[in-house]
Amino acid sequence: MTTTGVDSEVDVSAAAGGYAGSGAGATGEATGVIDGAPDGAAEATGGAAGATGGAAGATGGAAEAPGGVAEATGGVAEGTLEEEGDIAADYIEELLDICDLDGDIDIDARGGRAYVSVNSSEDSNLRLLSNPDTVQALQELTRLAVQTKTGGFSRLILDVGGSRQIREAELGRLVASAIDRIEVGGESAVALAPMSSYERKVVHDIVAERGFVSNSEGEGRDRHTVVSAA
């Protein structure tokens, strides 16, 4: 695991110029993430997350099934994942520097994915980027930066300020509610809202732990998970 400290002094207003040139090419659209309010960050990206085409969905759903990680990665070597992590860390570090945000970057590789986490003290201004929608948009842009450097598809996961743990807790509550509707309400199956392949995999794992069954249905942005009794 690698840790990189960041302590920046560049004014946020410089983000539009610097961030756009920081590696992905499409990142000029991402300045709204920084300049706008966190609540509107996903909208402010001007479709930056969507501009990746199927970056999040290009795995074809293979990664979302509990046993599907190896199939989706095609046996990605750990050294390749570490390279992805290093490229992503450099990209995120430059972004934090441009935005005058403080954060420590941790890199890990597990389950066929590179994981990059940005954390800081409780009173840090890093919370400006920790909104889940903002993190999702930044993740797609970071993947683009990695893909530009490596020439290969990236399934990298980005976490800022514990946003992933917060989201996973929310998914746990969604699954609990769905199971309650099946056990108490008598419903045969409950469809959850559309979500990313990574989040669907998290849901599959939680559902399996509870002794129920889940399947993904739909295509593209409408792809969602359906929970049912075993």
Short recap of the structure:
This protein has 230 residues and is an alpha+beta fold. It contains 8 helices and 7 strands.
Topology:
Blueprint: E1 2-6, H1 15-20, H2 31-35, H3 41-44, H4 69-73, H5 78-99, E2 103-110, E3 113-119, H6 132-150, E4 157-160, H7 163-183, E5 189-191, H8 197-209, E6 213-217, E7 224-228
Parallel strand pairs: 3-4
Antiparallel strand pairs: 1-2, 2-3, 5-7, 6-7
Helix pairs in contact: 5-6, 7-8
Structural notes for this entry:
With 230 residues, this protein is of the alpha+beta class. The protein has helices at residues 15-20, 31-35, 41-44, 69-73, 78-99, 132-150, 163-183, 197-209, and strands spanning 2-6, 103-110, 113-119, 157-160, 189-191, 213-217, 224-228. It is elongated.
Overall mean pLDDT: 74
Please state the oligomeric state of the protein chains shown: single chain
Number of DSSP helices? 8
The largest sheet is: 4 strands, mixed
Q: How many extended strands?
A: 7
Shape: elongated
Kindly list the characteristics that best describe this protein.
3-stranded antiparallel β-sheet, 41% helix, single chain, 230 residues, elongated, alpha+beta
